[in-house]
Amino acid sequence: MSYVDEVIAQVKAKNAAEPEFIQAVEEVIESIRVVIEADEQKYRDLAFLERLVEPERIIQFRVPWVDDNGKVQVNRGYRVQYNSAIGPYKGGLRLHPSVYLGIIKFLGFEQIFKNSLTGLPIGGGKGGSDFDPKGKSDNEVMRFCQSFMTELYRHIGADTDVPAGDIGVGAREIGFLYGQYKRITGLYEGVLTGKGLTYGGSLARTQATGYGLLYFTKELLAVNGIDIAGKTAAVTGAGNVAIYAIEKAQQMGVKVVTCSDSTGWIYDPEGIDVPTLKQVKEVKRARLTEYAAARPSAEYHEGKGVWAIKTDLYLPCATQNELPLEGAKQLVANGTIAVCEGANMPTTLEATKYLQENGVIFAPGKAANAGGVATSALEMSQNSERLSWSFEEVDSKLEGIMKNIVHNVVAAADKYGMSGNYVAGANIAGFEKVAEAMKAQGVV
Ligand code: NDP
User: Fold this and answer.
1) Which residues line ligand 1 (CB under 6 A)?
2) Closest residue by CA, ligand 1 atom 32
3) How many Cβ atoms from other residues are within 10 Å of residue 183's Cβ?
4) 143 three-class SS
């Protein structure tokens, strides 16, 4: 059996209860197969892939907190410090009831390659909890965040591990987490990113993942001889990534006609109205039914199925495995030109293959949504030099980074004879830098 197949089999056997993790590992390792097999004995002698797939450290802890009725609640907290070959661990914290170790490991593993692709010196990590912020009062969220940080603080630091936001963790949660870190350690340092502007946050961080997705998509289309202006798009999600993806798409002359949340989706043929969406989701934290109520042109549909709407571009920005094979088939039938992932692994493996085999330009999240973590790294730089850059400065650096990622991904795919396969291009380009660093640092 080849070395790659052996390691995939081992990962499946050892992590059988973690399907998302297996999916992420399989996707990456399959696409770097050509690199590994060019020098198989050396990688095998170094147990290189075994080390790559094993996190450097997994921290799991209990998070006790008291709800507004005086009842004690207990959640489970995680931080997976996956790989520090090229820099301190960096990656978000997710608060969602679906969180368990397999989700955090899949996200942490993906983060290694994403962070490498940014060209910035950041390693891979991820964390979170099965706490559900939905329906909780601000005080409950604060008590949870304080308890979570009371354990996490001893494992993180501005030069060791720098968490950020993800699903369920926005400005409110980062503020509570930062306050508790500072209170316990007495340190005013850049230990978290996504901070508020009054206490060390970076301008453009809020917008970065969504804006970055559009800078990426525009450049990738240009590489394929297509102008983004005048195109139509379907976006899924209605959170941080989705909102700013829609905003930037509209600035680029793209008409976005959909968005979604965990209960349903909106079709608004007039184009999604971003101020209304922000009011419903960022201010009121309400359901999309309220968007439909406020916009006569909008239709609300219960459940999933955004792919039913015919558009040129499809930008999934909600969560993992939201786009199944059935959706991919519909997109191909609709004549969709490109699918660029704003969320992490929103497309199943079968759906990805189907899109690629049917000529749809497909960009994986680890490349297309890297603008968030890239701007987090820019926030770390500003914190280190105790300066704040202007919005324009951060935004133009973000745009440069995203264009660069496109060209590195395209070049890596070309180099290994897989032109147009941007999944392989992203995995190979991300892997090469991490591999060099790991080899140089010996068996650690
Ligand atoms: P938010 O919590 O701000 O928004 C998530 C959105 O997706 C919400 O609209 C939510 O619906 C919906 N959603 C969440 N879980 C599910 C589910 N199980 N089924 C259907 N819909 C769901 O998160 P973000 O926008 O920050 O993150 C979205 C994706 O982007 C995630 O995959 C994340 O890992 C990825 N990402 C985020 C980055 C960032 O900077 N924030 C950076 C890179 C990637 P509802 O409103 O009902 O909760």
Assistant:
1) 98, 165-168, 209, 237-242, 261-263, 317-319, 342-344, 369, 372
2) 343
3) 12
4) helix
Residues of each domain in the chain carrying CATH 3.40.50.10860: 55-190
Please state which architecture CATH assigns to domain 208-368: 3-Layer(aba) Sandwich (3.40)
The rounded Å distance from CA 213 to ligand 1 centre is 14
Q: Measured in angstroms, how far is the CA atom of residue 25 from the centroid of ligand 1?
A: 21
Domain(s) of CATH 3.40.50.720: residues in the chain: 208-368
Consecutive 10-residue averages of pLDDT for the chain (444 residues): 97 98 96 96 97 98 98 98 98 98 98 97 98 96 98 98 96 97 97 97 97 98 98 98 98 98 97 98 95 97 97 97 98 98 96 98 97 97 96 98 98 96 97 97 96
How is domain 55-190 classified at the CATH fold level?
A: Rossmann fold (3.40.50)
What is the signed CA dihedral for 379, 221, 252, 307, rounded to 10 degrees? -100
Contact assessment for residue 343 and residue 261, using Cβ atoms and an 8 Å cutoff = no
Q: Residue 126 catalytic?
A: yes
DSSP H/E element including 90: strand 89-95
Q: Which of the following is catalytic: 90, 105, 114, 126?
A: 126
